[in-house]
Write a structure and sequence with these properties.
- With about 200 residues, the protein is an alpha+beta fold.
- About 45% of the residues lie in helices and about 25% in strands.
- Helix 4 packs parallel to helix 6 and helix 5 packs antiparallel against helix 6.
């Protein structure tokens, strides 16, 4: 992680990405950081005391099973937010978040603005939207469907419902799209390598 010290550049990013629209609180001071591909952003053994708005790059979120194998949780493409769950969990992260590419984020200190953010209606609405999108994805992932074909149909349905929702966030649509893409790729591979019907 590298600190970006160009204040004018940071202010420009905040403006271009409409970050202040997520807050009622005024005079917020953001910092900016760059991450290299493969770098860890969060892990269960360290606390996160910032809200991070990624304006470029992508990450993968995963856990580690008891046998040491990796359990894939999610994939996020910018723009997306990290730190929403940690905000309500004393900074504790449940999973690992690793950069798939080089990335840049705008960071807001939770410790510095915690009291203000707890009473910031616009920010709390943002958290609710983020929580709901992640809950939708978790529910979709854990829905029991006997075939990949049925899971793909489920993802199509979920994606359409989210797209039709005027309050849907870019992040929730991106997440559902990526789950859909993975399962479609699986179907194609089954057809190519095993000759199974699509």
């Amino acid at each position: 992680m590298k600190t970006i010290t160009d204040i004018k550049q940071i202010e420009q990013w905040v403006k271009e990405n409409h970050i202040l629209n997520y807050f009622d609180t005024t005079n917020l001071i953001f910092e900016a950081y760059s991450y290299d591909k493969g770098e860890l952003i969060t892990s269960p053994n360290k606390t996160l005391h910032t809200i991070m708005f990624f304006i470029s790059g992508s990450v993968k979120i995963y856990g580690i099973r008891e046998d040491g194998s990796m359990s894939s949780i999610n994939h996020l493409d910018s723009p997306f937010m990290i730190g929403d769950l940690e905000f309500s969990n004393n900074g504790l992260s449940l999973f690992f978040t690793e950069c798939n590419t080089d990335a840049i984020c705008l960071s807001l200190s939770i410790e510095k603005y915690y009291d203000e953010l707890c009473h910031d209606i616009q920010f709390l609405h943002l958290l609710l939207k983020s929580y709901s999108s992640k809950l939708i994805q978790a529910s979709t992932m854990n829905t029991i469907a006997p075939t990949i074909e049925e899971r793909v149909l489920l993802y199509f349905q979920t994606y359409q419902e989210i797209r039709d929702n005027e309050k849907a966030t870019h992040q929730s649509m991106s997440l559902t799209y990526n789950f859909l893409k993975i399962n479609l790729m699986t179907l194609v591979l089954k057809k190519v390598f095993y000759g199974e019907a699509l």
